[in-house]
Amino acid sequence: MSAQIAGKVVVVTGASSGLGKAVARRLAAEGAKLVLGARRLDRLETLADDLSIGRDAVRKTDVSDSAQVQALVDHAIALHGRVDVLINNAGLMPHSPLEKRRIEDWDRMIDVNLKGTLYGIAAVLPQMQKQKSGHIINVSSVAGHKVGPGGAVYSATKSAVRVVSEGLRQEVKPYNIRTTIISPGAVATELPNSVTDEDTARSMKEFYENYAIPPESFASCVVFAMSQPEEVDINEILFRPTAQQ
Ligand code: NDP
């Protein structure tokens, strides 16, 4: 158990599956006080029971609604009096070629991946500024560093998350707030299920079956960033399966 993590109040979005769920498990084991959000409350409640953290630790949250994100953070403050870490993790990846004009998917990616991250930042900043401490961890992607066919909009949102995070890093220095971007490669989660284009879904499934690594790899990165001494800010972590291009 890391002394830098035990007792910390950590809000995680998108905690109902995949990376969010894995990091919740790991941080619970490290002694963090968790507040978990996602839309599927039944899954969050099952996780809360599993981790023995109490159902009060979970809250139905759609990150595309700024009021719901604020309510999640306010709930954490009401429960614990502070927020030490926000993990802006909720996201989706409905890849498809632009010519398929899946405008609804584009809107959802912008609303969840980008605006959801911004809403998280807006929700915690006043409290962290008041505390003069905090840590905001934004989940980008290898796709935030490069773009491939079918991934233009997803990569746009994930590179925007990196840009926002870097701007945030520069602005929050006076408040002793740390910022970390974590950019994973293929990790075995439900993410490929968000693909709605059939051709893309087939190739994506195959890719993930061949390459994806377990979500605990992401949880280890979060623990690494969080366990540094307070004066050390891990700005960015980029990792991927050894076999992934
Ligand atoms: P999953 O599909 O397993 O999990 C996505 C999570 O996001 C779920 O908990 C889901 O919960 C939540 N979510 C989706 N939409 C919303 C919403 N509107 N409001 C609140 N929560 C929402 O995928 P991952 O765990 O893989 O994805 C987590 C993050 O990691 C994403 O940002 C993704 O882009 C990023 N990432 C993942 C990679 C991978 O290979 N797995 C690689 C690079 C980055 P619910 O549906 O209950 O709301």
UniProtKB/TrEMBL annotation:
Q: Where is the Ketoreductase domain?
A: 8-190
Q: Which family does it belong to?
A: Belongs to the short-chain dehydrogenases/reductases (SDR) family.
Matches recorded under InterPro entries: KR_dom, NAD(P)-bd_dom_sf, Sc_DH/Rdtase_CS, SDR_fam
Source organism superkingdom: Bacteria
Q: Which residues cross the membrane?
A: none
Which PANTHER family does the protein's record reference? DEHYDROGENASE/REDUCTASE SDR FAMILY MEMBER 11, DEHYDROGENASE_REDUCTASE SDR FAMILY MEMBER 11
Q: Which keywords has UniProt assigned to this entry? A: Oxidoreductase
Gene3D superfamilies the record matches? NAD(P)-binding Rossmann-like Domain
Organism equals Asaia krungthepensis NRIC 0535
- State the Pfam families in the record: adh_short (PF00106)
Sections of the chain in a coiled coil: none
Q: What is this protein called?
A: Oxidoreductase
Annotated SMART domains: PKS_KR
